[in-house]
Each structure stands twice: as structure tokens, then as C-alpha cells.
Specification:
89 residues; mainly alpha; 6 helices; 76% helix; globular
């Protein structure tokens, strides 16, 4: 199945050592782990003395709450303007 293949690819991207830990969770949990990991990588690549590093640290540690904010921003600004920004679908 495509969904299982995509899930395994995400797990590999996260380098999940304990596969059972993620198998009993829904897809949102796995995507939150991926988001948390991505923000952590961004924070590590940023000068730790900047305000942005603090923001990236906060988002990586509280990604579930940040995801809700990002969803609102996406619904309000990205989706309505996707044709303008990304071309015709």
C-alpha cells in the first residue's frame, strides 16, 4: 500500500529506532514528529544568540500547539493564494 510505504519513508527520515512506538499512533503523530525534528534542525543551523533560535527552539519543543497556528495561517493565506504563488493546479 502507498500509505504504508510513505509511512515507512517518514519513519526512516526520522531515523525511528523503535518502530513499534510509532505504529500504534495515528498519521498526525508521525507528521508532528517530523515537524518537531525539522524545526530542531533549523534551530541547530541558526546562531543560538538570535531571537530566531529561541523561536525555533520553542516551536520544536511545542510543535503540537505550533501546528494548530500553522494550520490557521495555511488555511487563511496559503490556500487562497496558491494559484497566484504556485501557478495553476
Amino acid at each position: 500500500m502507498v500509505a504504508n510505504r510513505e509511512r515507512r519513508a517518514l519513519e526512516r527520515a526520522l531515523a525511528a529506532a523503535d518502530r513499534e512506538r510509532s505504529e500504534n499512533r495515528d498519521g498526525v503523530w508521525l507528521l508532528e514528529q517530523l515537524g518537531r525534528h525539522a524545526y530542531r534542525i533549523a534551530q541547530q543551523a541558526t546562531d543560538r544568540r538570535t531571537a530566531m533560535a529561541a523561536v525555533l527552539t520553542e516551536v520544536s519543543e511545542n510543535f503540537a500547539a505550533a501546528r494548530r497556528v500553522l494550520n490557521v495561517l495555511t488555511d487563511r493565506y496559503l490556500f487562497p493564494m496558491r494559484r497566484q504563488w504556485f501557478g495553476a493546479e
